[in-house]
Amino acid sequence: MSAPSRPVAVVTGAARGIGRAIAATLVSRGWAVVVTDADGAAAAATAAQIGAVASLAQDVRDAGSHGVVAAEAAQHGVLTAWFNNAGVGDDGSLAELTEDQVRRLVDVNLLGMVWGMRAALAAFGPAGGDIVNVASLSGLGPVPGLSMYAATKAGVVSLTQSVDAETPRSVRLHALCPDGVDTDLVGGMDQSGLAVALIHSGGRLLIVSEVADAAVALVGTHRVVQTLPAWRGGLMRFSSLAPRVSARLVGVVAAQGRRAMERAR
Description:
By secondary structure, the chain is α/β, with parallel strands linked by helices. The chain has 10 helices and 7 strands. Strands 3-2-1-4-5-6-7 form a 7-stranded parallel β-sheet, with helices on both faces. Helix 1 crosses helix 8, helix 4 packs parallel to helix 5 and helix 9 runs antiparallel to helix 10. The model has no long low-confidence stretch (mean pLDDT 89).
């Protein structure tokens, strides 16, 4: 009797950071994982190191690339989960961002997930599957200094909720909204800027393994929006209900974040 085939998952933006941690977690739990990244060489290195079944260079802005990824996943079994993780994090006020930065944020963070979701929905078999979109806590409320980034993540949260309502119950969609995470994305932001101070205001940055565990734990559940940690989600939702109050508190919260950054040095 042949051994049962392993469930297959796709993880985008998986060469490093959160995506790599998600892929490694899945492999450790018996999944066959296809990793993709804009840096094809780094994706191949990650796949070899963690034991993924395949790697592909992928620019998630290319709608057709997601079909290629789905076809690769089909070579290894039945696609069961798709993790849309690839993202960019240009910080700065809306007035400060260049046109290229604005377009990149929308094309990668929002449209990249749109194309991934469409490919996954088309590729899932009769048993359905899970789509996990790595969004952000910033998508749940105002974050000055990250306005465009937050807007794309808010779009991801809204899209996830709507598409979950459109699909059969066998297909489950999830938006994971973590607080600041210790990744190159955050490290590449202006370390003296308002955005980074607000990101650090929670006291400490999450580590990628925490986010990966939460992402993988969503598979098989009907939880559509998950914040990490939960208490920060409540705070962000309150700020969106009382934007004038939250605007007055920005300076206080930023100062708290800067103190946390000083303690971490």
